[in-house]
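pasting for the record
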Amino acid sequence: MAEGELNGRVALVTGASYGLGRAIAEELATRGASIMLTDVDERLAGTTAELAAEGRQVAHCRLDVTDRSSVKAAVNETLSRFGGLDIFVNNAGWSKVMSPIREISAEEWDVYMAINVRGNLFCIQEAAEAMIAGGKGGRFVAIVSTAAVKPYKRAAAYCTSKSAIPMLAKAAALELGEHGITVNCVAPGPTVTETNLAHGSGAIDPKMGEEKRRREAMIPLGKNDPIDIATAVAFFASPAARRVTGQLMVVEGGGQLIS
């Protein structure tokens, strides 16, 4: 870690109340950034208070990625609180309902597309508006999944929504490069988080939980910890990645090497 490499930078992180989002916010703050933590989860205020007690420069506000006006309001709050926006990390996503392809309802499909795809569009749009107005460029990082590059049973809606995000990022990177804005994705494999543990325990789908535990037991380097994803995000936000855009970094311990 290059301590202080993000001094003076301002980051907004969605889905930041727990899990990957919290880890990402902590890592960027440790490197010197001021952080606006956002979420729809009621734990957000408590998480922000805990990080503030550790001496980190943080604030929080509500952000619903499916509502562009909510994204815009959160960006404006960030600009008002910290005076700019240099890094936007969209970690918010949906994976809590999994159905076989023959049983996916229109409602389930639409929720996946609204949160995972449309949400990234709205976040890119509002981040770009603020960064262009600021005149200093910026970094946008979307958190996707290995489901963006590999199908899983009983997860067609999830896989389809996640696979759309890297192409959206490439298109955005192509258009926004002239403004000095980079757009990249981090694709985590199985990571020790609250949601991952719920899937693995079978709490969401018993049969899927059994399959998930079997796959994860074979990962050559084992499951990720949240810090593994946070440091990947921090790379894309760092000075070292100033010429890196439109890319997908897969962090999954070699899981795709197994059948």
